[in-house]
Amino acid sequence: MLKKFINKPEDVVNEMIEGYLVAHKDVVRKLDSSRVLVRKEAPIEGKVGIVTGGGSGHKPAFIGYIGENLLDAVAVGDIFASPSAKQIYDAIKAVDSGRGVLCVLGNYSGDVMNFDMAVEMARDEGIKVEQVIINDDVGSAPRENRENRRGVAGEVIVWKAVGAKAAKGASLEEVKEIAQRVNDNTRSMGVAHSPCAVPSKMYGGEPTFTLGEMEMEIGVGHHGEPGVKRMPIKTADEVTKMLVEPVLEDLPFRKGDRVSVLINGLGSTSLLEMYIIYRKLYQILKGREITIAISFIGEFFTSLEMGGFSITLTRLDKELESLLKSPAKSPLFHYC
Question: CATH says 186-335 is which class?
């Protein structure tokens, strides 16, 4: 059993939300009718609303990105579980100013099903709603079956870009196009050397998967889904190369590209390790004459206490680079 500081397992999500709200009440509010967190100012006149949602256990995702030039509302699911269609529908209604709402979600069956239902419910009421499904995880399906890939840390890059675009007063169609453009140009790959545990007992839970003491798994998902290969643990340089080469070849990224880089810790990987990884990634990209225009290094989309990290690359054009470099501020994410 992996130990945790919790009270009752069934109360962890609601108690987390209660703490988050009192800590950040100047930014975020909760709907009375649903487990949905909303930007305090929403709906914002003249702006397309941005909605996402998913399971808890990924902090700072998802609720940590509600804020200025980022998300407007998040439907909060249980640990690693989709929010309901009713929650998502309530989130859409709460942020609609008349300009429409864009839903951005990861490619997980429960999320896709419930977002589809919520979008139809909102459209039946005359709300303009579009959605984009993120599928950046190279390790979860081959390129010819890209529509089956999971959405992982690439979602953060999409939220950043669409939040900035919506804040400029862009139309729903324009904001959706940015989301799709970022997704089409984003690829990710992850690795883990130790599991996480869903809270299931008074002081902890059982590991979501098992690895040998000196094993790692390449391509593992954010919920502990199986990867593409299990092997003895390697050095930071070796692992970085094993992750980035499939990412580079998949799009493919080419000489002369400008990219954003996101090194994402999965819950218990230190910044010390992540900067060692970034060092090697920089060397690899420089060797291919690919320029890093912007970098994000830290914990952006975790999996409770999983030990591991992912690498996300996004090929940029002038507009995407400008949007990603725009200021953004939320309780758990600042970019100036």
Answer: alpha beta
